[in-house]
Amino acid sequence: MRTHLIVGNWKMHKTAEATVAFIDDFLQSLHATSTEIDIALAPPFTALGAAADRLREHMRVGLAAQDMHWEEQGAFTGAIAPGMLVEFGVSHVIVGHSERRRSFGETDEMVNKKVKAALAHDLTPIVCVGEPLSVRDGGGAQAHIVTQTHAAFAGVPAHRIAHCVIAYEPIWAIGTGKNCDVNEANAAMASIREGVPGASHATMLYGGSVTPQNMREYARQPHVDGALVGGASLDPVSFFDLIRAAHEGFSGQ
User: In Å, what is the CA distance from 103 to each residue of 96, 162, 226?
Assistant: First the structure.
């Protein structure tokens, strides 16, 4: 069901030592403020253990994984199974990120398998959808992301989709510094809510060059429940400032 959520996706950044240092600094700032926004950090797999140890006593910050395989076990060199994430106390897992689709050949069918595997293990999938610049320029962005979302949740009952997280990340905005116009992002999310059964109640995040400077305006949009943050989540001060800006936006300040 819809909640306010900010997720820091660190991608291939930070060692276990750097992860501990970040969390210690970030929690000091977080303790000094009051917010009802849920927060999750998605460090690299190699840092999940260190992050889990540091966050175990801090219920305000959850632990997410950046990806996973859909199989329970097997001959899948380099892959991580759902149960391995559960063992570390992971609550959310990012699936279908455009970087996984582009660089590792992930298909809609593979994303769908991951969604179902996550739900089977009581992990909340953060399902990423988004259009390339060519589709956006051609006017087909909304149809593209609705089709992509349908494919990700194929065979998943609507009442289960309502408890998932959908991250709208226009591909042309990821890591480019060119964030999507807030009204355009809101309209894209509205199209998903209206076009996919169950999505009207799902938590929906915006991702793509999110910063403390623009987060407040995204948070003021009726269909935006939070953000999937990349570069701005790598520094504890920047990430805290972004969360504070989100709080102000959600509160109408």
Answer: 11, 29, 26
- 217 flagged as catalytic: no
pLDDT in tens, 103-145: 999 999 999 999 999 999 999 999 999 998 888 888 888 999 9
**Residue in the block written with tokens 């930070």:** 14
Verify whether residue 144 is a known catalytic residue: no
- Prediction pTM value: 0.96
Domain ranges of the chain: 5-250
Of the listed 4, 69, 92, 97, which one is catalytic?
Answer: 97
Q: What is the fold, at CATH topology level, of the domain defined by 5-250?
A: TIM Barrel (3.20.20)
Q: Which of 99, 106, 131, 169 is catalytic?
A: 169
Share of the chain above pLDDT 70, in %: 99
